[in-house]
Amino acid sequence: MVFAFVRSRWDHSVSAVARTGRSGTAHWLCASVVMVIVGSPATADAPRATASGVVCSLNGRFCAFRTRDARSVEVRRHTGKSMLKVWRANVVSPQLLVGDDGRSLVEIRPDLNLVDQGANACTIVLIFHRADSTAAPLRLRDISIDPARLPVTISHRAWARAYGYDGRNSFIVETHDGRRLHFDPATWRPK
């Protein structure tokens, strides 16, 4: 039930991101507080935050930290013994991945690779963020997925098998049917 609340906040907030490139602060705060209290469900391959809520790039040079007001994340770069702020992004979901270049991050649905059984082609599955640019939502239709043909779990439909940065300047999505899509973090267009 609590997880359904977080998902409804995500769904409502991503529509604001799709319209404006910005997220609503009240939705952000509610989702963050609920996820901190309840914990986040995840599969074995899911992105995991450290105990402090910090998520780092594969190379470990850049990390995303939640701001004190829980309305955004700051991407910071390791410089010896300190961390320098690189940029800030409005991020609704507690799940995210940071690129090795430190200039990109991907916001992931709270229910990871699953969508509701009532999902349609406009359902947002990922939101790409880049420093100094507007957030770019990725919808099921953008990756040629028909929601009616997605495999059904007990209560959801699985749209992807895996996704993540590959350490070679690409973000890869492996769809439910085994297609591997490579996205350029500089433009968020398929390679």
Which features does this protein show?
alpha+beta; four-stranded antiparallel beta sheet; globular; disordered N terminus
Structural write-up:
- The protein has 191 residues and is an alpha+beta fold.
- The chain has one domain (2-141).
- The protein is built from 2 helices and 13 strands; from the N terminus they run H-H-E-E-E-E-E-E-E-E-E-E-E-E-E.
- Strand 12 and strand 13 form a beta hairpin.
Question: In terms of topology, how is this protein built?
Answer:
Elements: H1 2-20, H2 25-38, E1 55-56, E2 62-66, E3 73-79, E4 82-89, E5 95-98, E6 104-108, E7 114-116, E8 124-130, E9 136-139, E10 156-158, E11 160-165, E12 171-175, E13 180-183
Antiparallel strand pairs: 1-2, 2-3, 3-4, 5-6, 6-8, 7-10, 8-9, 11-12, 12-13
Helix pairs in contact: 1-2
